[in-house]
Amino acid sequence: MEKAGYTLTFNDEFDTIDVSANGPGTKWTAHTPWHGDFGDALFADPVPGFPFSVDNGILRIEARKRADGKWESGLLASVDARNVGFKQQYGYFEMRAKLPPGEGVWPAFWLDSMVPSQFDDPSLEIDVMEYYGQFNDVYHSTVKLWPKDRTQIGPFWNTRVPVRANSLTTDFHTWGVSVEPDLIIFYLDGVETWRTKTPETHKHEMMILVNLALGGGWSIANTPNPSYMYVDYIRAYKKAA
């Protein structure tokens, strides 16, 4: 867990899963703090074994179709609606995971700023990894600015990272991002993939989110039922003083 020049500030090795629907007092909550589901699967309140389970230090996030034909899946957020939980403005954030195969899956590892109510600043969203299952040889990394009311997306910067076909679904890989006052730098398995300037409006701390969503504008007619995303760990660091 050591990283040269950095101090560990957050880690979950998933020996257990500490999650509740909306907090308080748990490491993770199962909904975004703004209570916004997205995609074509509802993010379920956690119950034993679904949508989260752990085995031998690996978190499994499951998406499955209910008897009524509706899909449910899972999201983890490190901050709850009361703005309580882990958040950090700058540093290095990392996840090691294996993604689900198949059309319609839409897993992501991302950061989002929780702007206190007294500020009108836009929030910064950093999608470290966003994967659309029908395109198995690429994933996206994106930087987005959202106005406070989140009614429409503001400026965004996006890159497509090419990978060997099906490699992200057959083995574990590590996605990371370094966020500093001047630059945001993205990594895959420790190798830089892309960098962009940090928006001048980035003034607030960010939470960590990971989810297995479905759809994202693409059909889920052929999505495997069930589908699984596996997460080995999630960690955050800040530069040592």
Q: How is the topology of this model organized?
A:
Blueprint: E1 6-12, E2 19-20, E3 28-29, E4 42-43, E5 52-55, E6 58-65, E7 71-73, E8 75-77, E9 91-98, E10 105-113, E11 123-130, E12 138-146, E13 156-162, H1 167-170, E14 173-179, E15 183-188, E16 191-197, E17 206-214, E18 227-239
Parallel strand pairs: 2-3, 4-7
Antiparallel strand pairs: 1-18, 5-6, 6-7, 6-18, 8-17, 9-14, 9-18, 10-11, 10-17, 11-12, 12-13, 14-15, 15-16
Order of SSEs: EEEEEEEEEEEEEHEEEEE
The count of helical stretches stands at 1
Low-confidence stretches: none
User: How big is the Rg?
Assistant: 17 Å
Structure write-up:
There is one protein chain. Helices cover 2% and strands 47% of the residues. It has 1 helix and 18 strands. Strands 1, 4, 5, 6, 7, 9, 14, 15, 16 and 18 form a 10-stranded mixed beta sheet that branches. Strands 8-17-10-11-12-13 form a 6-stranded antiparallel beta sheet, with no helix packed on it. By secondary structure, the protein is mainly β.
Features:
18 strands; 6-stranded antiparallel sheet; single chain; mainly beta; 1 helix; 10-stranded mixed sheet; 241 residues
